[in-house]
């Protein structure tokens, strides 16, 4: 139905062009047929030509209209209203300036220049109306209630260590653990999702790479679950920092603007934030700190899954992923054994535990088990 309407509109435009401009063409080529039906013939010729032209253009015009509709549907109503009003003001100014130009007899000045002025003034009006929403709201006294407008005011902090807004980055939404963390109730305040993060998620979800596409869709699903379940308040930040290109830099600028804290699992972003006087909550650091502590002499039951880098060592893992290096563990691969912790080492990659099998100290039929394995070798 939409394509038919597009074809009809192009055909009507063609009929109008044929009515006004074909007589000029006939005069140029010297063809003169002054009959009352000539105007109708001109309209029919123009309509037929543009109808044929509309057939290949209908799909392209429909796709463009669809993209425009989707883009407008995502915009804030205030964005559209101020943009439309400013565009109308720009058109009115262009018409007022064009009135004396129309009265001139100069060919280009009286027809082309007014059209250019209308296009330029309408575009400038739209840009002014949509890029300064905060100033227009303040000018017109349209400030929203507390908690609704985060661009004009920052909530008063109850404590130096308290930040009302927890800003989510793209990686934290793709990771998905933020949903489980929110459900525990350990995060307080309001989750803030900037529009530029949402756009990046949509770009990843529409990627040609299947892995990226799945990651992007998972991030959108996590965001939808957070909004629907309303475990904590979730707000969208509709502004942007057009003078900043990188999303990470925009997040830092937003955190400074609203006095918020960035929730992330990006190691590089976390390092950059440390130099920007902005606080960050890294859930990877949280996960590491919540791993159970072990002390020398403590006993664990583990399964040795592979050989270690050093001679006779075996490697096992705890349920939380902590690596356990077992002395003489190569003799117990694919076996569940009881070990005694000898030491623990904390590294940037995580915690490593060193242990030795209890079998090496317990006699089994007069011989320890590791000795039996070694004798077989």
Molecular structure report:
- By secondary structure, the chain is α/β, with parallel strands linked by helices.
- It folds into 3 domains: 136 residues, no CATH class; 125 residues, 5'-nuclease (Rossmann fold); 78 residues, OB fold (Dihydrolipoamide Acetyltransferase, E2P) (Beta Barrel), CATH 2.40.50.
- The protein has 13 helices and 10 strands.
- The strands form 2 sheets. Strands 3-2-1-4-5 form a 5-stranded parallel β-sheet. Strands 6-7-8-10-9 form a 5-stranded mixed β-barrel.
- Helix 3 runs antiparallel to helix 4.
- The radius of gyration is 35 Å and the shape is elongated.
What are the salient characteristics of this protein?
single chain, 377 residues, alpha/beta, Rossmann fold, OB fold (Dihydrolipoamide Acetyltransferase, E2P), 5-stranded parallel sheet, 13 helices, 15% strand
SSE topology:
Blueprint lengths: L1 H28 L8 H37 L2 H26 L9 H20 L1 H8 L24 E4 L1 H6 L1 H8 L5 E5 H11 L4 H20 L4 E4 L9 H12 L2 E4 L2 H8 L5 E3 H7 L9 E9 L6 E4 L5 E4 L9 E12 L2 E8 L11 H8 L1
Parallel strand pairs: 1-2, 1-4, 2-3, 4-5, 8-10
Antiparallel strand pairs: 6-7, 6-9, 7-8, 9-10
Number of self-contained structural domains = 3
Q: Give the helix tally.
A: 13
Percent of sequence in beta strands: 15-25%
Please state the CA-atom Rg, rounded to the nearest Å: 35 Å
Strand order of the largest sheet: 3-2-1-4-5
Care to count the β-strands?
10
Mean pLDDT: 78
Fraction of residues in H or I helices: 40-55%
What is the structural class? alpha/beta
**Main sheet record:** 5 strands, parallel
Which descriptor suits the 3D outline?
elongated
| Distance between the ends | 81 Å
Task: Pick out the low-confidence regions.
Answer: 143-156, 361-377
Topology pattern, helix = H, strand = E: HHHHHEHHEHHEHEHEHEEEEEH
